[in-house]
Amino acid sequence: QSALTQPPSASGSPGQSVTISCTGTSSDVGGYSYVSWYQQHPGKAPKVMIYGVNKRPSGVPDRFSGSKSGNTASLTVSGLQAEDEADYYCSSYAGSDDLVFGGGTKLTVL
Amino acid sequence: QLQLQESGPGLVKPSETLSLTCAVSGYSVTNRNCFWGWVRQPPGKGLEWLANIHYTGGTYYNPSLKSRLTMSVDTSKNQFSLIVSSVTDSDTAVYYCARRWAHDYHMDVWGTGTTVTVSS
Fold it and tell me: Phi and psi at residue A31, in whole multiples of 5°?
């Protein structure tokens, strides 16, 4: 069980779009449609933004979207806003009821 | 409205056993559609899934930590717990409890987290 690979940082200006990648293997990201994305502000608990690859929980702005191609999942934040600045973590089911997280990406709104 | 609240010792000595509890309010731990779990975050680092449990007793552990983890559910107190044995410095972290749906693998409700420091 290895951590999923995310870029350590990403950035964009207000109003722009930014995409964060999450690369795994055929045993996790590529093998199941159970990729989730979490937003975490400093000192706060994570909050789910996307689940099931591309589903948004109630209350999450539609500026947040998810997708997957092969072993790589992506989170896109459109129309960047200052409050989107946070750490983002992907997670995937890895079989046998195992869950694996990515290393996290710090999103900076310039 | 579901709320989760972790509690723990704050400070644990190396080689000792860490016991954490998550009190569940506004929801029953016996809901068959839910699992309950733990995730931790070392200082300045990323999230690490630790374990999940269903109230019927089914438990699932991170393979790399399985030998040191034990989860349990107390339906009478509507809470669940995690024991981490033989702790070391690397177990220093914020520990979060969370709810996970049985047929999905995302955690939709989280506690605020409890900080655990391993130090002599």
Answer: -100, -10
Whether the CA torsion A26, B54, A55, A50 is positive or negative: it is negative
Neighbours of B58 (CB within 10 A): 12
CA of A52, closest CA in chain B: separation in Å? 7
pLDDT tens, position by position, A20-55:
999 999 999 999 999 999 999 999 999 999 999 999
What is the rounded CA–CA span in Å between residue B79 and residue B24? 5
Among A48, A97, A100, select the one facing B107 at the smallest CB separation.
Answer: A48
Q: Which residues on B lie below 8 Å from A41 (Cβ)?
A: none
Give the pLDDT band (50/70/90) at residue B102. confident
| Contact indicator for A28, A100 with CB cutoff of 8 Å | yes
From the list B117, B118, B114, the residue with the least C-alpha distance to B21 is B114
Question: What's A71's DSSP letter?
Answer: T
Catalogue the E-assigned strands of chain A. Answer: 9-12, 18-23, 35-40, 47-50, 64-69, 72-77, 86-93, 99-101, 105-109
CB pairs under 8 A between A and B: 63
Q: Helix or strand or coil: residue B3? A: strand
Chain B residue closest in CA terms to A46:
B110
Q: State CA B67 to chain mean position distance.
A: 15
